[in-house]
Sequence to fold (211 residues):
Amino acid sequence: MTVILPSPPYSAANDDDDDDDGDDCRYRAPELLYGARCYDEGVDLWAVGCIFGELLNNSPLFPGESDIQQLVCVLSQLGTPNEDIWPGMTDLPDYNKISFSEFSPVPFEQLLPDASPDAIDLLSKFLVYSSKKRIRARDALIHLYFFRDPLPAHHSELPIPTRQRRAGTLLQRRVGVDGHDFDVDAPLEETLVDPNKLEPFASLFVTSSNK
Fold:
C-alpha cells in the first residue's frame, strides 16, 4: 500500500529553512517550536498528523501565524503537557522563555465530530507531544483506518501533474531510513503490505459468509 500526502513546508528533510512563515509553522512539531536543535523523524510524523487532521477538518487544526501563536493553538487543543507526558520538555532551549496558561485537552471527537473512530485513533497517535511515542510510519500504514471503507487509492489511480520527469530524482524515488526503496513507478504487486503484518488483524476481515 502506498499513501501519498503533500509534503509539509518544514520537515527534517529541509531543516535549513529557518523562516517564520505562518503556513510553515502550522506543521512544526512542538519540540521545534520550543527551539530543539536535535530531533528525529518524529517531527515529520507530527507534520503528517497535521496534514491528516487538515484533510479531515478541511482547514488546519493548529492555524498559528507564528511560533508562539502555534504553541498556543497546540496547547489549547492538546492540553498543557508536563514531564510525565513529555519527558525532557523542560530541557528544551526555549521552554523557560515564555509561559502559557494551563489548558485542558479537547477530545479529538469534539475537534473533528465528522471523523470516523479509526481516523480519530490514527490522528491521536500522530499528534503526541513526545516524539518517541508518536506512531511510526510503518505502523501507521497498517492501521485499521486504511482497511476500512473508503479504501485508499493506489498511487497509479491518482492524477499526476504534467511536468518533465528526470530519472533518479527525489520526486521519483525516495529511500527510507530503514533502507527500503519507495518508487512511485513501482507496480501494484510490489507496493502491497506484507500479508504477515496483517495476520493480527485477520479476524476483522472475515465476513459472515466465511464464518
